[in-house]
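INTERNAL AUDIT FORM
Audit reference: QA-55
Scope: verify that the stored structure record matches its stored sequence.
Auditor: D.O.
Record contents follow.
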Amino acid sequence: MKTLLVDDFVSGIKKITECIIENEVYFCELDSHAGDGDFGMSLAKGFKIIRDEWETLERTDIGTFLKSCGMIIYENCGGASGPIWGSGFNAAARYAKGKRELSFAELSEMLQASIDKIQKLGGAKLGDKTLLDTFIPAVESLKQSAAENKELPGLISDLVKAAEQGAENTKSIAAVKGRASYVGERSIGFPDAGALALSIIIKVAAGPVPVI
């Protein structure tokens, strides 16, 4: 398997940014079943600034690039999205500080650092009907593929499947964290907005690079 270079992370964040902006309304609709219905707008708010400031983002190494994105997200995404997504990006940036390439094993370690920070921040765990129900299985799949030195097509396929299955699993879970916890059992039957959004973002990140 190849290593991921700074340009790979730049391309990946470009795809993620475009995906979030294009799906702003849809992500709000997902959130309307159990939340305030503003998740898509809250998340897109910060990523629109990343889009607008794209050419000014520092790209000395992977860590500085992710930190540049993370600070914008933390300061500009609305609601809980700013602290959650911003902290995740900043934890990844700290892991990748000074690095200009990462193996897929290192990528899984970097993303695990993001998971650990998000869990520390909000206290959520697997099965609490949050984005972690997508994030954790996806990273576990990545760890396994890296350990097996799986070829890239298989790695991506397994990663996407794990993310999609994780999001699907949230339909049968009652929310216990965040705004959705207020409706409790009534959230059963609907996927968690953050979990489903993240599964879509992961799938898009494996596709063609959009133009911003």
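Auditor finding: record pair retrieved intact. The first helix runs from residue 6 to 22.
Action required: none
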